[in-house]
Structure formats: structure tokens, C-alpha cells
Write a structure and sequence with these properties.
The structure holds two protein chains of two kinds.
Chain A: H1 25-46, H2 55-65, H3 82-85, H4 110-135, E1 150-152, H5 155-162, H6 168-183, H7 191-195, E2 198-200, E3 214-215, E4 221-229, E5 232-239, E6 246-248, E7 251-252, H8 253-256, H9 260-273, E8 280-286, H10 290-305, H11 311-320
Parallel strand pairs in A: 6-8
Antiparallel strand pairs in A: 1-2, 3-4, 4-5, 5-8, 6-7
Chain B: E1 51-54, H1 56-62, H2 69-78, E2 81-84, H3 87-98, E3 106-112, H4 118-132, E4 135-139, E5 153-154, E6 162-163, H5 165-178, H6 180-185, E7 192-194, E8 198-200, H7 206-215, H8 220-234, E9 242-247, H9 272-281, E10 288-293, H10 309-321, E11 325-329, H11 334-346, H12 358-368, H13 372-379
Parallel strand pairs in B: 3-10, 3-11, 4-9, 9-10
Antiparallel strand pairs in B: 1-2, 5-6, 7-8
Classes of the chains: A alpha+beta, B alpha/beta.
């Protein structure tokens, strides 16, 4: 007869169903203690002062003691504070008797609903305050919040804050509630609460400074510009009061660029501004091929022409794409493929 | 604001289009570009930049083979032949008018970059000379004689040399068309044997030599040699004036692409035609002038940036042609450009709307670099 009874060890538990490992609080605390001890040991080893041993020093020490040639930084040995290593998780929400701590536990999204409740409570408070102010005949002061410089938290940030998954619908409802709160006149009282959910947006338009014109010995105005395209680099000097003559690397453009297309590219900035016969240009270019050099000189001359031209026209040039560096470069060849996109011929057998 | 006016590409024939002779009643401002002077003899600086007309019958008579191909197409399209009067041509004409025919023939070398109008200048001079009654010896392109030759015969006259019957007979035919009346007047001074049975007696008109060459293609190269020799020897007498016009003269001293049957390369001296032409171009005869052009486009084994006489002729050619009067030809001056542009507009060759605007004109000038050939090619598709 075969042995039918089985031991519990043989019965495999379905590991995946229980979800990610839950760390207990005690476990995390122990890890933190170990980390701090280890930090002091490491400081002693390196001969530094244990009290003033920062995270950067730790990283440097580890990189020195355990050098690794792996490309992925995340794969190399690291020693960081446990809060950074162990993902923040929600601790077990119920006690030993199995009864959950939070009253909204069985909704499934307890922190989200509790947040909504709190926010609504604040809203009601503000409305009550407003009624009081009206009852006292004081006009409610409305200070404009700086809406331009701040934004609400994104859904991902909110998820991180609440430590539970949200749906798009939930997120939008929360944001609408916040907006409603902010729209009320006496919302200043709850300013601190609202600030928890908004972020400053650093708005800084990078203003490109247009260089002024320079003058050479004869008093002729000129300006320089640099441009590049693929591997070609070009510098151009555009002179005023000219006849439209262009010299590239010491030779005339008719000889340097026998192809019409290249000459058209050179002509484009001048034609756009309507200044074909008015400027002379002397340029130097190196690298790249025929087309790349033409594109590089075009960019350089457009940049140089900015100094001669009003701001509005500079804006038009920018919109026309004359002032943008062309980001296209040769794509890398991948292993297992013949070129960057072309695959090897597929053989059925 | 975003103008992408690349419309202006006019297919202008080789730049130097002749301006038709219209009387200058200023009904239309464009008539300024034309002059009514049909005779090159009367062209002066005030005609510079203007186009003059050559009647079509004259074109056929004077230029059976000399005009650039694109210009011939333009003549067919516009149904008229207009040549621009330009400074180098005026210079040459002035020299020719003032030259003393008793002295040995002066050599003029027209040189310049590609597509600036050297061949057209030569044609202008040829037209002038034919009007004046000179005998014109016009070799359209000497490069045709040193490359792409299908048949090479060993010369019967001289064992080392090679004949080119096809090219020689073609040239003889054209020579006959252009100089009909002279062929009857000039008489041979020696007896020439064409093989065992045929011969031309002394005192026969030169026309017979030409006929002989055309009839017996095998001896065409020798016939050419005879013609050149006779003309050279008789020009000093003064009964006629001889103009030797050679286009692409640097072919005479370069290399050839021809090979003998044993695959050894042929040098130019071994070709009868080239040998005889070299003798003509030497200035040991008087009573005429030699006008030549350098050409890089047809030249063999020369870099495309070479355009000076020294580079294109090589040491040998330079020594052979030295001393000569160099005549440089450059791109269009602004005035010439304007007149060429005006001509195309007038003949409705520039169809694009933008071509009629000032911007269009500036664009054309920029893109072509005021080079006649480039302008011609640009104006084509427009």
C-alpha cells in the first residue's frame, strides 16, 4: 500500500498569493539599528570621525572597499538607510484579535476615504466661518492665491503619500474637492492644510540673450554665430553693407557647394528675412558631409543674423525652425541586427 | 512670413543668350536689354550687357558646328539666336580690329571658370570675322578628337601616326558649309597623292581637296592636313584673312583616352589631326589671328578646379602657345545679370509667379552666383 498521508512540509504553499513580503515594525527598527552600528564601524575602518559620517562618505567608502564593474548602478553593493531600501509599506492594520484599527478599513481604501472626509470637514468649517463673517457684517477678504506658481500633487505623488492605490476617478474627485475649497473666500484659514497638497512650479523661461553687434576697423557692423548638424561644426561671421557674397573655408560657395540643394539651405535665413543681397558672410566649417555642413552653416548664419534683426523677427525665425539645433544623429547599430533598424534576412529554416 | 521661395529656377540656356535686335522705343522697359546692332563690328562699350540678334540663316551658315548644345536648344525654343555682348568679347574685337596682318598671327587664349561664357565669346568673335569676310577655321571642340574615337586607322602618309576618319570627315563637312566661297578661290600649290591612283594636281581649287576627303573617308585626315597647310601658307599673301578658332585647345597637349590595338595609350602627337592642328596654332604664319579657348569640362585627367592656362595646358602646351594674349572671362556683372534675367522674363521662359518679383531675382542671383551656366540650368525648370 502506498503512503497516502502527507506532511505539511510537502504541501507547497502558494507563495505568490500572499503578496509582497510585509515587514513588521520591529524588523524595520532592528534594521535601522544595524545600519547605524554599521555606519560607525565603517567610519572607524576608514579612519574618519563616526559622528560626522554622512551618506556621501558611506557611498564613497563602499565604492572603495567593494569595487564593481557592473554598469547598472542599482546592481552594485550599496549601504543605505533602511527607509530608502525597504519600500514604505503599510503596516498590518489589525491587532491580535483581528479587529482593524481604522473605522474605514473595510472600504478597502481607508486612507483615501479618511482624507476625503477630512477635506470635507475643512470645507464645512470654512463655510461656517464665512457665515459667521457675513452675520457680523464683515466683508470676506479674499486674497488671491498664487495659482500660477503652484500645482496640485499628481496622482502618483498622492498614491505615495497615502500608501495605497487610487483610481483616476478618485484622484479627480479629490482634486475637485480641493479646488472647491480653495474657491471659497475664507479659505485662508485652511492655508496650511491646502499647502500639503500643492507644489511650487519653478517657472523660469530661459531667455536667450541676443549679442549686440560688433564693429570692425572700417566701422562695418558684423556678428558671429556657431552652428552644428550631425558631426559638422560651423562658425559664421556676417558683415553688414555687403553684396551677398559668401565665402566658405576660403572658397566661393559656387565651388564649395556645387549642389543646388546646399546653396538653397544657405540662402534660407537671408531669404526669410528678405536680406539676400545685403550681407556678406565668411564662414569656416569642418566635419560631417556635404548636407551636414550646409545645415551647420545655415544654423550659424541664422544665429549671427539675430543681432541685426528685431525681436519679433527673431521669434519668427525661431518658429520657422531656423534657430533650433537639429537633434537627428546617426542611430547606433544594435547587435543581432544588420544596421540600426534593418534586421537580418529571416530564413524560415 | 514664412517664405520658401525656391520657385526661381529658370532653365536658361547657357546664359549668354542673344538679345534680339529691337529698336529701342521705350514702350517696355525691358527693351533696354536689346540692341539693334546686328553687326558685331559696330559693337562698342555702350552695347555692353545687351543682347543682339543673329538671323537664323546666318547661324546656319556661320555656325554649322560651333555653338554650345544648350544654346542651340535655346535657339530652337525661342526661334531666334541672341548673343550677349560682354567685355571680353569687346576686348578681343578691339584687338582684332587693331591688329596688323603683316605681323605673325597673334594668339589669344580665352580662359575662365566653368560656365562663364568662353565658347560664346569665341562664337561672337567668329561671327564678327565671318561678317568681315575672313576665312574661319573653326574647330568646335578639340576634345572630340582625343576621346571617344571609334575608328583609328594607321596613317598611310606616316606610319607612326593614326588617322581618325569619322571626326575628320565631319569637320570637313562643316568647314565646307561655312566657307563655301573661299574653297573655289584658293588654289593648291602642290600636287597631293591620295593613295596610288588618286591625286590632286597643283592649282586645283581647295574645294576639290575637301571633296576628296569627304568622298574617300580613309584619307579624310590627310585632307584636313592638306587644307590646314595650304591655308597657312597662303594666308600671308593677303587675298584672304585667316581666323583659326579652336575651342578646348588644351586637348592638343594633354593625354588621350584612346588606345592602340595593343592597349598602349596614344599620345596626342600620334594623331594626324592633332599634329596638323598644332602646326597651325604655331604663330609662324601671318595674315590672321588665332583665338583659342581653354575648356575644363571636356578635358581629360584634369581636376575640376583648374581653370588657368598654366594648369590646363600643362608645361608642354604652355610653352607651345607662349606668347599669347590671355583674356579672362568672369561671371555676370550685375548689369549683365539684369539683362539676361530681363530677356528670360520677356520671352516668358520664367513661368513661376515668384520669378517676376524682386525677391525672385535676388534669389536667382544668389543661387546661381551670377554664373551664366548655373543661371541657365536654374531657369530651366521654372
Amino acid at each position: 500500500l502506498r503512503l497516502i498521508c502527507t506532511t505539511t512540509a510537502v504541501q507547497k504553499k502558494n507563495v505568490g498569493a500572499s503578496g509582497p513580503e510585509k515587514y513588521t515594525e520591529a524588523f524595520i527598527k532592528k534594521q535601522i539599528e544595524e545600519f547605524n552600528l554599521g555606519k560607525r564601524h565603517l567610519a572607524n575602518m576608514m579612519g574618519e570621525d563616526p559622528e560626522t559620517f554622512t551618506q556621501e562618505d558611506i557611498d564613497r567608502a563602499i565604492a572603495y572597499l567593494f569595487p564593481s564593474g557592473l554598469f547598472d548602478k542599482q546592481a552594485r553593493p550599496m549601504m543605505k538607510h533602511p527607509t530608502e531600501i525597504f519600500p514604505e509599506q503599510r503596516k498590518i492594520q489589525w491587532g491580535e484579535d483581528g479587529r482593524p484599527f481604522h473605522f474605514l478599513f473595510y472600504t478597502g481604501k481607508q486612507s483615501y476615504y479618511s482624507l476625503m472626509h477630512e477635506t470635507y470637514e475643512k470645507l464645512l468649517n470654512v463655510q461656517k466661518h464665512q457665515d459667521q463673517m457675513i452675520a457680523q457684517d464683515l466683508p470676506p477678504q479674499k486674497e488671491k492665491r498664487n495659482l500660477a506658481g503652484s500645482r496640485w500633487l499628481t496622482k502618483i505623488e498622492l498614491e505615495e503619500m497615502l500608501l495605497e492605490k487610487l483610481s483616476d476617478d478618485d484622484y479627480s474627485r479629490f482634486i475637485k474637492l480641493l479646488e472647491k475649497l480653495v474657491a471659497l473666500p475664507c479659505a485662508d484659514t485652511e492655508e496650511d492644510y491646502i499647502r500639503k497638497f500643492s507644489k511650487e512650479v519653478p517657472m523660469q523661461l530661459q531667455k536667450v540673450v541676443v549679442e549686440p553687434l560688433q564693429y570692425d576697423e572700417q566701422g562695418v557692423a558684423f556678428s558671429t554665430g556657431e552652428g552644428k548638424r550631425k558631426t559638422a561644426r560651423a562658425t559664421a561671421v556676417v558683415y553688414d553693407n555687403g553684396t551677398g557674397k559668401i565665402t566658405v573655408n576660403g572658397t566661393d560657395i559656387l565651388h564649395y557647394f556645387p549642389v543646388l540643394q546646399d546653396r538653397e539651405q544657405l540662402m534660407f535665413p537671408f531669404q526669410f528675412l528678405g536680406r539676400i543681397g545685403k550681407h556678406d558672410m565668411v564662414c569656416t566649417v569642418s566635419g560631417g558631409g556635404r548636407s551636414a555642413q550646409a545645415g551647420a552653416i545655415r544654423l550659424a548664419s541664422a544665429k549671427a543674423l539675430r543681432s541685426f534683426v528685431t525681436e519679433k523677427e527673431v521669434e519668427f525665425m525661431r518658429q520657422a525652425g531656423l534657430l533650433t539645433v537639429d537633434p537627428r544623429v546617426k542611430e547606433r547599430k544594435k547587435p543581432g541586427q544588420e544596421g540600426s533598424r534593418r534586421k537580418f534576412t529571416w530564413k524560415k529554416r | 512670413q514664412l517664405e520658401h521661395g525656391r520657385a526661381l529656377h529658370t532653365a536658361a540656356r547657357d546664359g549668354l543668350s542673344s538679345v534680339s535686335a529691337q529698336d529701342v522705343p521705350a514702350e517696355r522697359p525691358r527693351a533696354v536689354f536689346h540692341t539693334s546692332e546686328s553687326d558685331p563690328a559696330k559693337h562698342t562699350e555702350q552695347h555692353e550687357g545687351r543682347l543682339y540678334d543673329i538671323p537664323l540663316e546666318e547661324v546656319k551658315a556661320v555656325f554649322p558646328h560651333g555653338l554650345p548644345y544648350r544654346f542651340q536648344q535655346q535657339i530652337q525654343t525661342f526661334n531666334e539666336a541672341r548673343v550677349m555682348v560682354r567685355r571680353p568679347a569687346l576686348e578681343l574685337l578691339a584687338y582684332l580690329k587693331g591688329s596688323n596682318l603683316a605681323h605673325p598671327a597673334v594668339r589669344y587664349v580665352i580662359y575662365g571658370e566653368r560656365g562663364t561664357g568662353k565658347t560664346m565669346t569665341l562664337c561672337h568673335v567668329v561671327h564678327y570675322c565671318s561678317r568681315q569676310g575672313w576665312l574661319v577655321l573653326h574647330v568646335p571642340d578639340a576634345h572630340l578628337w582625343v576621346k571617344n574615337c571609334k575608328e583609328l586607322l594607321q596613317s598611310s602618309y606616316n606610319k607612326d601616326r593614326l588617322d581618325q576618319p569619322l571626326q575628320a570627315s565631319a569637320w570637313l563637312r562643316n568647314f565646307k558649309t561655312s566657307n563655301e566661297r573661299f574653297l573655289q578661290e584658293i588654289k593648291t600649290q602642290k600636287k597631293y597623292m591620295w593613295g596610288k591612283r588618286e591625286s590632286t594636281e597643283e592649282g586645283r581649287p581647295l574645294g576639290e581637296v575637301v571633296e576628296q576627303g569627304l568622298a574617300r573617308v580613309r584619307s579624310a585626315s590627310d585632307a584636313v592636313g592638306v587644307v590646314l597647310r595650304e591655308l597657312r601658307q597662303q594666308s600671308h599673301r593677303g587675298s584672304f584673312r585667316l581666323l583659326v578658332a579652336v575651342d578646348g585647345v588644351n586637348a592638343l597637349w594633354g593625354r588621350t583616352t584612346l588606345r592602340k590595338e595593343d592597349k598602349s595609350p596614344v599620345s596626342p602627337e600620334e594623331l594626324t589631326l592633332v599634329h596638323n592642328l598644332r602646326k597651325v596654332v604655331r604663330n609662324d604664319w601671318s595674315g590672321g589671328a588665332i583665338v583659342t579657348t581653354l575648356s575644363q569640362t571636356g578635358s581629360l585627367f584634369k581636376p575640376s578646379s583648374a581653370y588657368t592656362p598654366h594648369e590646363l595646358l600643362g608645361k608642354e602646351g604652355f610653352d607651345a602657345l607662349d606668347p599669347f594674349v590671355p583674356i579672362p572671362v568672369t561671371n555676370y556683372s550685375p548689369k549683365e545679370f539684369e539683362s539676361c534675367y530681363g530677356y528670360y522674363l520677356e520671352r516668358k521662359w520664367l513661368q513661376h509667379e515668384k520669378a517676376h518679383t524682386e525677391d525672385g531675382k535676388a534669389e536667382l542671383q544668389f543661387l546661381s552666383g551670377s554664373n551664366p551656366r548655373q543661371l541657365d540650368r536654374l531657369a530651366g525648370p521654372l
